[in-house]
Structures are given as C-alpha cells and as structure tokens.
Design a protein that fits this description.
The chain is mainly α. 64% of the residues lie in helices and 4% in strands. Helix 1 crosses helix 3 and helix 8 crosses helix 12. The protein starts with a helix and ends with a helix.
Length: 322
C-alpha cells in the first residue's frame, strides 16, 4: 500500500492552470530554473503530499482520497507562491530558486485554514435554534419538548459551498449576495478565488448579524414555520417588507393575498418601483444605524434587501405569465 501511495504521487501531474505551473514554465523558458532544481521542487512537493496523506487519509486503499491530498499539496503550494510573489512570475521564479518550497505550502495552508475556521463556525452557528431547557423562551413558551427544526441562515447552495470549501473545492464563479447558482465542486486554482471565498463568507457572516438585529423575539412562533422554506431568511425579509409597505408596521407574517397586493403595488413589469425601493432601503439603513450595526453589515443588508426585491419581482412576473 505504501508503494501504491508513492506511485500515485510520482504519477501526479501539475495542473497547468496553477500559478506554480506557470511559474515553473516561465523559469524554464528563460532558463532561470535549472532542470535539477525543478526536479528537486517536484520531489519536495511530493514529500509534502506524502505527509498530507499520512496525516489525513484513514483508508489508504481510497485512491480518490489519496489523489485529493496530492492535489491539495500542489494547490496550497501554488497559492502560497502566488501570495508571496503577488502574482508576478519573475518574482515567483526568484522565490522558487532561493526559498524552500515548504514555505509556500505553509503560507497557502495558513490562508486556507483561516477560511476553513470561518466555514466551520458558520456551519455550526449560522442556525437559529429554539431555546434550550436552561434558557427562557422569548415568549414564555417551552418548545424543548416539541420537534422543531433549526432555521438555517445559509441557503442550501451556501451549505454546499461551505462543505466544498472544507475539502479545498469551490462551487461558485463570482461572489453573490446570496448564493443561488453553483457549479460542480472543482479544485481551487488561484489566489483571486481565495479572495472571492473570503468575500462570500463575509456575506453569510453579515447576514447573521443582520438577522440578529431584526426586531423579532421568537422566529419559531411564525406561521407557517420558517424552516419549511428553502430560503427562510429571504422569506423573513420579504414578510417584513410586505408589512412595511402595506400596513406601515413591523411584522413577519404574511399570507398569499397580502403578497399579491404587495406585487400589484410595488412592481411594474417585474421591476420594483424606484421610489418604493429607495424608501425600503432607507428604512433598513436607518434601522440598522439605530441598532448600532457596523458599516459592513449595513452595506450588506441594503444589498440583501435589494436582491430580495429583485428576486421577488422575478417570481411575480413568472407567476403572472402562467
């Protein structure tokens, strides 16, 4: 089995899209990295891959897992080199010539571990749960004996994004206010993707702070339950918006009749009326200012409300077509 493990590393090819591969090719073209040194670099990366396999692979017969760890060794080393050289190929070649390759792996690993820590925290904590037996329920009702699902602040697509991140994969092409469109998970290739992931995690984190700031004592008493919706926070936001527009009051429950009345008042040809849109965005901005939310949370919440209004307009237009 050990021999098989080593042969997989030896057979592994460096993805040409990686910055590391581009730097090695650049050095080769200009004869700046001697062949012996390039071979030594590969050997050092192979040693890193071996160590990852030893540390993280439970079943050495799982060839897919072995290949994943080999790819991870290449990816983290490449990200570290791109970070250290600021994406400059000439500087990258210089660094490869004078710096131990494990240093680049350590940099890349540090970058990703920070993202992993945030992803794990969101998976565990970005869920609204009912009060435990040791806590007082907001409305004085004991829900601990009732089977109540937690309310996820992240969407199902964002759940896939967070889980893929933990195995050094990415599911998005661009940052989204709410992740709605995902691709098949693919390996990380470039530092710009790390930066995009950082920004996307911030979106979910800011949404958590936004939800906590809302004047809602107990989301578990809403009818229908938020947990039945594929995007419960969007439903919560839409309910607040509808009540503000129709009744000038803060409330988080709506029925389909109120929703239809809202569409007739707020939209024209699927587009929200600009004056109403601005009033709503001003309302959430002012509310979050009163609750002393930081600027990034306010900025995100405004973008989130804008996105919810846009999506609701598309839903209404689609329903009217039928």
């Amino acid at each position: 089995m050990t021999t098989h493990k080593f042969s997989l590393v030896a057979e592994a090819t460096l993805d040409r899209r990686l910055f590391l591969a581009q730097a090695l090719a650049h050095g080769d073209i200009f004869s700046r990295i001697p062949r012996e040194q390039a071979d030594r670099l590969y050997q050092n990366i192979a040693a890193i891959a071996h160590k990852l396999i030893t540390m993280k692979t439970v079943d050495l017969s799982d060839e897919s897992a072995l290949r994943t760890h080999i790819q991870t060794a290449f990816t983290l080393t490449s990200l570290g080199l791109e970070y250290g050289s600021k994406g400059d190929l000439d500087k990258a070649v210089q660094l490869l010539r004078k710096t131990r390759v494990v240093k680049f792996f350590q940099i890349g690993n540090t970058l990703m571990e920070r993202l992993h820590d945030r992803a794990r925290h969101l998976l565990e904590h970005a869920v609204i749960r009912p009060a435990s037996k040791d806590e007082e329920s907001p409305l004085g009702t004991d829900y601990t004996d009732i089977e109540i699902q937690g309310i996820q602040i992240y969407t199902q697509a964002e759940l896939e994004f967070l889980k893929a991140l933990l195995i050094y994969r990415i599911t998005i092409q661009t940052r989204q206010v709410t992740i709605r469109d995902t691709d098949t998970p693919r390996p990380l290739l470039h530092l710009k993707e790390v930066e995009m992931i950082d920004s996307q995690l911030a979106c979910i984190e800011h949404r958590c702070d936004y939800v906590k700031a809302l004047p809602l004592e107990n989301p578990f008493v809403l009818d229908p339950p938020l947990s039945i919706f594929p995007n419960p926070i969007e439903r919560l936001t839409l309910s607040l918006i509808v009540n503000l527009v129709l009744y000038r009051q803060v409330d988080f429950e709506i029925d389909e009749e109120a929703r239809q009345d809202f569409h007739e008042l707020a939209y024209a040809d699927g587009e929200v009326r600009e004056s109403l849109r601005q009033q709503l965005l001003n309302w959430i901005t002012q509310y979050l200012e009163q609750t002393q939310q930081p600027e990034p949370v306010k900025t995100y919440a405004v973008a989130y409300w804008d996105d919810c209004l846009r999506i609701e307009g598309q839903v209404g237009a689609s329903q009217s077509d039928h």
